[in-house]
Structures are given as C-alpha cells and as structure tokens.
Write a structure and sequence with these properties.
The protein has helices spanning 2-15, 20-49, 59-68, 73-83, 95-100, 129-142, 162-165, 174-182, 199-212, 230-240, 256-263, 275-278, 283-297, 317-331, 351-373, 377-397, 403-407, 412-421, 424-429, 434-454, 458-461, 472-482, 488-507, 512-516, 530-542, 552-566, 570-589, 598-620, and strands spanning 52-57, 87-91, 104-106, 121-127, 149-151, 155-160, 186-190, 215-216, 243-246, 267-271, 301-304, 335-336. The protein folds into three domains: 17-49 and 346-620, no CATH class; 52-92 and 172-336, Alpha-Beta Barrel (TIM Barrel); 94-107 and 118-170. The chain is of the alpha/beta class and 626 residues long. The strands form two sheets. It has a seven-stranded parallel beta barrel with strand order 1-2-7-8-9-10-11, surrounded by seven helices. The two termini are 22 Å apart. Helix 13 (283-297) runs parallel beside helix 14. The radius of gyration is 30 Å and the shape is elongated.
C-alpha cells in the first residue's frame, strides 16, 4: 500500500516540482513589490490631490470673437468666465504685432528729423498716445541706441529698422491685463522669442510678466533665451516665482525640456490643439477629447483656441465650447480652477527605493533568461544572485559625469530597471507546470508594481524623461513564444516577421505599445447612422485600445498553453502561448505611464487580470501531469 501511495503521488509531485532558481527569483520579485507598495501609496495619495485643471482661452481668438459678436471685450470675457474659463493669455507687445493689428501706423511727418541717427534710419509710427508713451519708455530701457522720442500727439520716433527690432518683446499691455483680471480671469503672459536675446532683455520681460500672473506660456516655437541664454531665463523665472506652461503633449518648444527639467516643480502640463488637429473635431468632440487628455495624458492646463471656420456657426458658440470643456472635465472628476499647478512635493523614488524595488527587475529578468535558455540550476542560481546584486547597485552607480549632467541629471538606472521588469512575460511563458504558472503571475504582478515605481516622479510625470523599451519589451516575449511553433518553416517565418517589424519600428522611433495604451476618447455620434454607431462601439470594445483591458489574456493564454502542451497539442499550445505573450505585454503597458492616475489604470486592468486568472485556473483542471 505504501508503494501504491508513493506511485500515486509521483505525478502530483512532478506537476508541482519547484526549481530553486525560480523560487529565489520569485522571492526577490515579491520582496521588491513589497517595497514598491510603500512608494506607490505615496504616489496614490498625491494623485488624489492632483485633480485641478485650468482652462485658458487664446487672447487673439477671444478678441476676434468679441468683435464679430458685437460685444465689448470686457463683456465677452465676463461671459467666458461664467462659462468656465479660468484664464486668458496676454501676448507680449512687439512693434510688428502692433502694426499688424492696426494699433500703430507708419506715418511720414511734416518735419522729419534732420540729424542722422546712430543706427539705421528714423522711423515714425503713429498710435494712441498712452501706447506710444509706453513704447518710448520700453525702447529707452531695452534699446537706448534707438534714441526713442515722441513727436506731437502720439507719434513714436526711433532709429533703426523694423526688420531688425520689430520682433523684439516690448512688455505687456497693463490696461488689457486689468480688463482681464476685472472679469475674474487669470492672466497667462506669453513672452515672445526673437533673435539675439540679451540677458537684460530676458530679465526685464519676465519681471514685467510676473506682475500680472505667475503662469508663463512662451509664444511661438522657441523659449525666450534658447539656447545660449537659457540660464538667464531660468534665473529670472526662479527669482520671479514663475510657473512654466509646458506643451509636452501637442508640441515641443525649443528649450522647454531644459526649463522644465530645471524649473520643477513649477511646471504645469499643457496642451493646445493645432489647426490641423482641430479639422476632424467639432466642439462637442473636442470637449470630450480635453477630458480624455486630462485623464490619460495628465493635462492640467487646457490652452483653448476657438473654432472659427470649420465646425463653427457663430462667434458666441465659443462660450458653449468652453462650457462643454468644463462639464466634460468635471464628469471625469476634475476640478476646474485657476490654481492648476502641481501639488508639491511630487513623490519620487530615491536611490534606496530604486535599489529595493529593483529586486523585482532582478527576479523577472533572471527568471526570464534562465527559462528562455533552459539553464541548469548550477548556472541559474548564480544568475539570480548576480541579477539581484546588479539591480541593488545600479542606482548608486549612476553619477553625473560632467557639469551638464549635474544640472540636468540623467535617468539611466530607472530606465534599465523598467526594461528588465518588462521582460516578466518571458518568465511567465517559461513555466513548465501549474506551480511555475503561479510563480509567473507573481513575477508579472511584481513587475507591474516595479514599472509604476521606476516611472514615478515629476520628470516622468511631465514626460521630461520617458520609459524606453526600444521595442524589446514586446519583441522578446513574442519571439520566445514563437520558438514553440512546431513547424520549422512557420517558426522561422514568425520570428523573422517579428524581427523585421522591430527593426522598422525602432528605426522610425515608433513605440506601438504607447499608441495602444490610452483609452478611447468619448465623442458625439449624432451625425452617424445606427449601423455605423454599432460598428464603432464594437471596435471600441474589441479593438486593441486600451491595452490594459487585455491584461487577463496573459494568465489565460499561458495556462491554456500549458494544458495543450501537456496533452500533446503542440500547435495549439504555441497559439495559446502567443496569445499569452500578447496579454502579458499589454498588461504591463499602462503601469509605465505616470501621467495617468494609478487608480484609473488599476480600475481597468485588475478586473481583466481577475478574469484571466480565473480562466487560467479552470484550464489547469485539465492539465495532464507527467
């Protein structure tokens, strides 16, 4: 009877045999996840306070809409404020802008200056006396060699040439700023950039801007001072306590990365639709897209340009557009307010946190490598120990190599640790029995927590630094799953196709997983047929976006692959393994995007994981033990 009992238990012990190296790797990952939980609790508490969004309307659009609606400018601004706007931009004055807007007019005087100017020629611009007086003072302070003077009633005289000085910032219109503030709106100054900016001119413009408000949204495609005078820009912003409006989502301005990197935490993540980006939208769809950007991309400053030609019926429709933006944001749980700056301090892992949480990467990477190469325990156990030591030491090895890196610290260690954690699907695919399948789940769960930690902190939240997977995070799991295809020709073709796709996408700098991460933006469909609406809804449900909804496919697919392989169905086992690899990869994507709150990612991925685990456990009931 004892012999029979031993014989009966042998298949069971075979099914649940545990490799020491895999046990150690899982223990490392669990220990790292425990450290990650502490960091993520801080991040979660911070995210609950980071729900404030500002709505800023473009000055030129608002001014044009007020005129076309036959309303006084201050009345139109009051309506914008009542409909939900919190700010209006205030562009810096330049001679070119004032001439283009008709506030200054070139004029030939009856008695021109007879003496020769120091530079260029004499220029005569006529305008409102108060404006002319302000410009004369600005030219005297900024460019004294232009010898500015006032002739008669409201004629500005200066030496030089409009082509040379017409683009230089001349401060801000205080009377317009007073009108904006009088209607309950905040002022967002827009300093201009121009050729050969001098430190004194940068300092003067930013000091003047700070009088009207603490938010700065630089105008055009370049930060004032870029690139040789950025230190003056940074020092002036620091001295005046200014907050950078950072357009990381829609477009980058040259120099903004350096300002954002040095100016943290006084940075707010912003977006502004380009004219091309507004073509497929109307104000209903755009309002939902603003809420989508706030939820999925961390946007906290909406720089709103108005619909004026396409999808526009009347100037006052702009008020409804702003109102819809406010409603859509509030429906997502955001608070529309003028105070949209980041709450500080932004929680970020320090070197000790990275070292401890790095154990998740050590466990995931060593289990993946040992399983993929089928290493013997004599090699696998030292590999686990080596990976643990490297992960713990890596954050402390990252030191600035020169003065530039000291000013703008790199982020190599978190990137390497995050990439190592992203290899956990390979470890899950390498499972050879139900117990190792469970270990694979633990490794992937720990890896998700590790990814969330490694990409935490303000640099990652603002996308000053970003996760870098080099497309290896999907290539390696899928290629490893493809090695299980029994037909040699099909196996070579699948691996070749994956490598080819990887080479093309990497050469073009594209990250397909990042494109699959955000959820669909809600929008109206009143102009679509019922059939088209149904097809659209089906695409939203069954399509690849958002990636996190397919997280459970990893657990279910790897379990199904185990069961099918145990029953000799190698071809179908390979298909299931590929599905498991896809699910494992997609399940991790959402946790590397810190601009989206953890609660949002967890809410949409954890149910999928739960279903996948349940399906996997049911499938394992049919596992045939050897």
């Amino acid at each position: 009877m004892a012999i029979l009992l031993t014989s009966d238990l042998r298949p069971l012990s075979s099914a649940f045999r545990m490799k020491l190296s895999r046990l150690l790797a899982t223990a490392l990952a669990v220990a790292g996840a425990a450290s990650a939980a502490r960091v993520l609790r801080r991040r979660r508490a911070w995210e609950q306070t980071h729900n404030r969004v500002a709505i800023c309307v473009d000055f030129d659009d608002a001014h044009e809409a007020a005129i076309r609606a036959a309303l006084p400018f201050d009345s139109f601004l009051g309506e914008l404020a009542r409909h939900g706007a919190t700010h209006l931009s205030l562009p810096e004055l330049t001679l070119n802008r004032l001439i283009e807007g008709g506030r200054l007019t070139p004029q030939s005087p009856a008695t021109p200056f007879s003496r020769a100017p120091r530079v260029g020629r004499w220029n005569y611009l006529h305008g409102d006396p108060a404006l002319v007086s302000q410009l004369a003072a600005e030219l005297s302070a900024r460019l004294p060699y232009t010898e500015p003077a006032i002739m008669g009633e409201g004629t500005l005289v200066f030496a030089g040439d409009l082509a040379a000085i017409g683009s230089i910032g001349m401060g801000f219109d205080a009377s317009v700023a007073a009108i904006i503030a009088g209607q309950g709106l905040g002022v967002v100054s827009r300093p201009v950039s121009y050729p050969w900016p001098e430190d004194s001119l940068i300092t003067l413009s930013l000091a003047q801007a700070s009088v009207f408000g603490k938010l700065i949204a630089f105008d055009g495609e370049m930060i004032l001072g870029h690139e040789m005078h950025l230190s003056a820009t940074l020092e002036a912003m620091e001295r005046e306590g200014l907050t950078l409006v950072y357009f990381a989502e829609s477009r980058h301005q040259k120099g903004d990365w350096f300002v954002a990197k040095r100016r943290a935490p006084a940075v707010v993540l912003a977006h502004g639709f380009t004219p091309a980006g507004m073509i497929p939208l109307d104000y209903h769809a755009a309002a939902h897209l603003w809420a989508h950007l706030a939820r999925e991309r961390g946007i906290r400053f909406c720089y709103v340009t108005l619909f004026k030609v396409l999808h526009a019926t009347a100037p006052l429709e702009a008020l409804h557009y702003v109102g819809h933006i406010k409603e859509a944001l509030e429906a997502e749980g955001f608070v529309v307010t003028a105070d949209a700056s980041l709450p500080v301090p932004v929680p970020a892992p320090d070197k000790k946190d990275l070292a401890l949480v790095g154990l998740t990467s050590a466990g995931a990477a060593s289990a993946a490598l040992a399983g993929a190469l089928n290493l013997p325990e004599a090699a696998a156990v030292p590999l686990v120990a080596l990976a643990a030591g490297a992960a713990v030491a890596l954050p402390y090895l990252e030191q600035p190599r020169d003065r530039l890196e000291a000013q703008y610290p790199p982020s190599y260690a978190p990137k390497l640790l995050a990439l190592a954690a992203a290899l956990s699907p390979v470890a899950a695919l390498a499972a050879r029995n139900p117990l190792e399948w469970g270990q694979g789940l633990l490794l992937q769960t720990a890896a998700a927590a590790g990814l969330a930690v490694f990409t935490s902190g303000q640099d990652y939240h603002l996308r000053i630094e970003e996760y870098r997977g080099f497309n290896l995070d999907w290539l390696l799991p899928l290629a490893y799953a493809a090695t299980g295809i029994p037909d040699a020709m099909a196996r070579v073709a699948a691996i070749s196709a994956l490598v080819g796709a990887w080479a093309v996408l990497t050469q073009r700098g594209q990250d397909p997983l990042a494109k699959l991460d955000p959820a669909h933006a809600e929008g109206h469909t009143h102009h679509l047929s019922a059939a088209t609406r149904l097809l659209g809804d089906a695409r939203m449900v069954l399509g690849p976006k958002p990636a996190r909804k397919w997280a459970g496919l990893g657990a279910a697919g790897t379990a199904a692959g185990l069961v099918l392989a145990s029953r000799g169905h190698r071809q179908w086992a390979a298909v299931a393994a590929l599905a498991g690899a896809v699910g494992g990869v997609l399940g991790l994507v959402g946790f590397r995007r810190p601009e989206r709150a953890l609660a949002v990612t967890a809410k949409e991925s954890l149910p999928s994981w739960g279903v996948g685990i349940a399906v996997g456990l049911l499938a394992l009931l049919f596992y045939r033990r050897e």
